Amino acid sequence: MGKVLDLLRQGVKLGYSVTGQNTTNFDDKTLKIASPRFLSLLPEDDNQTANLLSPSLFSLHNEGQGVENLTSLPSLIKNFNGADQQSWLNLIIEAAGVEDQAIKLDNDLKNEKEEKYEGKHSRKSYEEKHRGKDGTPLYFTKENVTTMYGDYETRKITTWERLMSTYTQEQKREMNDTGYAVLTFEQLHILYGPQSPYNSSEALARLTSINGTDAMHTYIEHDIHKMAEMKSFEIRQKDIVLSPIINSPLVLAYPTMSQPIVLSPVVFSPVVLTPAVLGPVVLSPWLFIPVILSPRVLSPLIVNPLIFSPIVLSPLVLHPLILSPGVFNPIVLSPLVLSPFILSPQVFTPIILSPLVLNPLILNPMVGSPLVLSPFVLSPLILSPQALFAVVLSPYTLSPLVLSPLFGAEVILSPSSLS
């Protein structure tokens, strides 16, 4: 890749020389080939960028030069008269689909008015709208529940109707405020008594023995504490601490990687078909650890150097790398979502066929780490200088460079917008 890009750069430099253009410091400039910018936020610096078939169009400022200034939105709109401005507005409204939505809302409002009569919705209209082609109601009634599920399920509906009809105003108010209410002695008999399909003598005896609302609230809290102590709820396993993993391939080892790994180096132990959820890795260097077909979610790497640890077919979601420098860690076919690199310098870590979303680089210098066929969105570079850097066939949007100089960089066939 480096030889191809260097050959390309030398060819463009020769073309500039033949046409009489200035080639001073050409090797230090960022080379852009067939990578137009759309809706750019800041003007392009011609002293730091060499453009070939990469114009800046429809920029949101009017500070550029040449084509960038002529096609900027402020310059275009400034010369519009009233009719032109209205035509431009109509084009935006039509392209955004606002007109279709307005018509739909207007039709919905008319239909709603037609269905109202004396301030109430027509039950007939509701029933007609919620019936199938054969007239079958698309909601449960006593009749269709009886037909489909029998008398037992109908008794459940009758029991709930009877129970709800006995709610007091105080109980209704309590349910609206807290989401639940304490049933009275009579209501407990309706729900758990011998005539109810929910009949439970044990539950009825246990609940009717509690006197008063305050005692019931205390009983509920006591039950919640007991549930929290049940063994079946102890789903978190013991953390891996001071336990190095060496020459132990992790294949289909979900429990191992889905728990914190602290002060436990991992060496020569490929991770295959082993997804990780809530498995942070802290102060546990990785050496020769390929991660293959092993998605990771909410499993950050913190103070965790990586060496020769490629990530292949393993999406990373909510997986930040913090203070985790790396060398020779290619990322291939592994989308990154909300997985920023923070103070984690990388050397020779190409990102290939791996889209990035909300994946900023913050205080994160990189060397020899191109992006190839990896579009990215909302992934700015903040105080993150890049050297021997290339963006190839990777369109990007809303991803500006913020105080992040580029050294020996090429941008090829990678249009950008709002960057």
Automatic annotation (TrEMBL):
The chain crosses the membrane at residues 240-257, 263-289, 301-322, 342-363, 375-398. Keywords: Membrane, Transmembrane, Transmembrane helix. The keyword Transmembrane helix applies. Signal peptide: none annotated. Residues 113-132 are annotated as: Disordered. This is Uncharacterized protein.
